[in-house]
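Thread: guanosine-5'-monophosphate complex, take 2
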Amino acid sequence: MTPFDKNSLDALHTLLNRTRRCVITCHISPDGDAIGSSLALCRVLRNAGKEVKVITPDTPPKSLSFLPGADDIVVFSRFEAFAKKIITDTELIFCLDYNDPKRVDLVAPALLASKAKKVMIDHHLYPDSFPDITLSHPEVSSTSALIYLVLTSISMGRFIDREAAECIYTGMMTDTGNFSYSSNDPELYRIVARLLEKGIDKDAIYKKVYFNNSINRLRLNGFALAERLADYPEHRASIITLTRDELNSYHYQKGDTEDLVNRPLTCPDIVYSLFLREEADYIKISARSKGDFPVNKLCTDLFNGGGHLNAAGGEFHGTLTEAVARVEEAMPLYDRYLPQQPN
Ligand code: 5GP
Ligand code: MN
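Output below.
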């Protein structure tokens, strides 16, 4: 990774030394990295004697509820007044795993209005300028790995206990697809070695996060792949769609379609995959790709979204059919990003 900016690290160190109350925030629909990095930092700061609260915009997935400290998360959408008060009263707000206030949704007005100092630690491109201190490292595969590196760089590594290590490992594992992409940096494995030395059971963490299927979920994913996957061989793309009614018929729970968008990429010929899910009043788009194909550009261009080169998303206000038509129409424009050689 590129070295940390020394001024920013020093400023963070100084700020932490004179701060007692902190709030940690992460993005809406928090994933393993958002929750992992937030709970790890929370644990470490508490171990260092600080008063810390983690606030998420909405409810974290059940598959992460095993993480130490998950029970104590304040969900903004459920306890709005309480969460707002904490954000207003705190001295320091960490913004983890997001680059833009839009990504915290309903939390954004309170966050921006708070007089607290703001520190962004993140790995998404193009960080917004609202924080007082920004540690933005898109070359690092997870915010959780970044948290480890930041803490050890400001002499706080000694506060990383087994519980914090579990949280860090979970974020590193989930944001790299269990070390299957963005995961060639040897430094990642040096971090993993340190986390194992803190006593984590990485095999158990894998099972807790990934072996949590329900029969409905299995069937919904089977249905989506069998009946609702359109492939576009000339553009090396696929689109999966699910309507509200289809989701309801399989008793859809949040998170049930989390991995679906990745599945078409297991076909060597498919370079990018989109999944369009009908929500109550909009269409949620998830996109994944291989190699240099920029799904973040596609999501920005077509769906007012963004994200990483190989994992991005957006929203569409209209019908599912219109959203699909928008992608189909644009596909020829993105052919130039396809690899020249077949896989
Ligand atoms: P997912 O498909 O898992 O919901 O999102 C994958 C990644 O795409 C996220 O980590 C985030 O970086 C980005 N992303 C997802 N949805 C949106 C969105 O609506 N707007 C923006 N800017 N980024 C998104
Ligand atoms: Mn992340």
